[in-house]
Amino acid sequence: MTATATTSRSVLRQAISGQRRQVTLASVLAAGHQGGEALVPVIIGVVIDQAVDGGSVGTLVFWLAVLAVVFAGLSYSYRFAARAAEGASLRAAHELRIAISRRVLHPGGGAENGKLAGELVNIGTSDAQRVGVVNAVLPFGIAALAGVLVSAVALLRISLPLGLLVLLGTPPLLYLAHLIGKPLERRSEAEQERSAHASGVATDLVSGLRVLKGIGAEPAAVARYRDTSQDSLKATLRAARAKAWHDGAVLALTGVFIAIVALVGGHLASSGSISVGDLVAAVGLAQFLLTPFLIFSWVNGELAQGRASASRVADLLTTPAAVEPGDGELPSPAGGNVRLDAVSYGSLRDLDFDIPAGQLIGVVAADPAAATDLLDCLGRAADPAEGRVRVDGVDLSTVDPERVREVVLVAAHDADLFEGTLAENVHAGDRPLDEALAASAADEVAAALPDGTGTAVTERGRSLSGGQRQRVALARALAADAPVLVVHDPTTAVDTVTEAKIATGLARLRRGRTTILVTTSPALLAVADRVVVLDGGRITGEGGHAELVRDRADYRAAVLS
């Protein structure tokens, strides 16, 4: 499965073609099962005509042995068909999940735009599973068709009108079932969208639970989720009603069709056109036909839901990347010189400044949006609308974003931790773990934990306080030892004493490496070689921290208030 899929049909085709061998095997085995099922009433009719009416015990024993062999074949063929089909379903869903994960984690980004985290998870789980199920139901749909064909041939042998009735009546019945499945497909897509949105809201609320409790916003959060959940419930009920209507309508059509076959067979028997054994076979085949038509109903419903989910998967896989790869190359090893040439993006306006390799630069942005936009441009999460960001003279917009992030590491303010030990969260580079921990004051966090750096950290670091999480996240960024490190407000949740310790440790550890601190912390700005002031998205001042504090009232208000 690749990200070149453009439609739901493309996603379905790739899911099936990726497991072609298993689907083919399951189809052959399932077709053998359905064909064998159709032969059972035919054999019983032969037994009645040849053994019972003829009174031959040997013939009766022979045909009973044939029946036993057929039943044994039926049992094994169904078992292995189900195993192969289920395996194909699970593998296809797994490949889809890998493709979705690869797209979401692609360095070019873009897949997450306009979607909550829970929505992405829902597409990668529920929708991927529904698409994978197509591989499980398709072999049985083919098998049901094989059963209908075997039944039609057997009925043709018994009576030409009966065989033609089945052969000519089945295609219109299948087309009607397809039309009946259209509303189910539409409502299934709506159901998945509402369910994904509800999952996204729930994830969002859980991740911000501490904040909600702190500001007393639990009632508003509950009301928001209640509304979202009710929308999801309504969509689910509409889809359930559509499925019930679909199954009932297909079952009614099937019942009418089978009744017609049985009536025609009974009329032919009463007129003497067919024997008693043929009548038994015809009635048995008419009853057997209920099974393949029920399978058709089930397959059609699953395909309708699979098409709806495939459409959502296709939309995600084909979401344009936020930034495109290029053929530019950054030097290896990178020196770390950063140059912004008249950069405009979002709230940024004509930023033009140079950061020599190895310097520690502070950036003070009065507008938080300007800080975020600057981080996006430096880390190539977005390309400037105008101007260029250069590293060692190379325009970043021409370099593959994955390579950019090997050289320029952006440590966002809201960086999450992962489930695992503290050491596993921090150790990401060649720098010794204890150096990164000491520079970020995260060694104090480790000392306070029961098992030190081996202490397990829960999802998103919720087992740690806000200040502890910040220090561990900063330690992780320092441990990577990137040529260019961009850090955004890494000390907002720590006390002033710890902040001063971090400032000293960070400056010492990053000596000789380019570091950009986007912050209003006076302790961090005091260790910077130079501070750049942004106001209104433009550079309005530049100089040393002490100099700016002395000469600029707006700077004092921003960093000392």
From TrEMBL:
Main localization, broad class: membrane
GO molecular function (one): ATP binding
Record keywords, A-Z: Membrane, Transmembrane, Transmembrane helix
Pfam families in the record: ABC_membrane (PF00664), ABC_tran (PF00005)
Protein localization: Cell membrane
Cited Gene3D superfamilies: ABC transporter type 1, transmembrane domain, P-loop containing nucleotide triphosphate hydrolases
GO CC, alphabetical: plasma membrane
Ranges that cross the membrane: 23-48, 60-81, 136-156, 162-180, 248-268, 280-299
Domain ABC transporter, chain residue ranges per copy: 311-561
Highest taxon above the source species: Bacteria
Membrane topology: Multi-pass membrane protein
ABC transmembrane type-1 domain mapped to chain residues: 25-305
InterPro entries: ABC1_TM_dom, ABC1_TM_sf, ABC_transporter-like_ATP-bd, ABC_transporter-like_CS, P-loop_NTPase, Type_1_exporter
PANTHER family to which the protein is assigned, alphabetical: ATP-BINDING CASSETTE SUB-FAMILY B MEMBER 10, MITOCHONDRIAL, ATP-DEPENDENT PERMEASE MDL1, MITOCHONDRIAL
Protein's name according to its UniProt entry: Multidrug ABC transporter ATPase/permease
